[in-house]
Amino acid sequence: MPLSYRFDLVLVSAVWMHLPPTVAEWALCILTELLATSSMLVVALRNWPGDG
Questions:
Q1: pLDDT score, position 50
Q2: Per residue of the chain (52 residues), what is the pLDDT tens digit?
Q3: pLDDT at 7
Q4: Which of 17, 12, 1, 3 minimizes the C-alpha distance to 40?
Q5: Which residues have CB under 8 Å from 42's CB, separation 6+?
């Protein structure tokens, strides 16, 4: 289904590390479709001692 919205900034905060690799790959494809030309995707990851 084509997406009709485009954004200048997409922020993904504190969720990416919880996605399995196959879901993360699919999600990245969807997120890039949401980006407008010359826009930015920001992914903030939590990396505490003892994680992962």
A1: 64
A2: 567 889 999 999 888 888 898 999 999 999 998 999 999 999 988 776 665 5
A3: 94
A4: 12
A5: 9, 10, 11, 12
Q: State the amino acid at position 44 in one-letter form.
A: A
Reported for 25-29, long-range contacts at CB under 8 A and 24+ positions apart, including other chains, are none
Tokens for 48? 């505490």
Adjacent-strand bridge partners of 42? 11
Whole-number Å distance between alpha carbons of 4 and 19: 25
CB 40 within 8 A of CB 8: yes
- Which two three-digit tokens encode residue 36? 């407008």
Spell out the residues 6+ positions from residue 21 whose beta carbon is closer than 8 angstroms to its own.
none
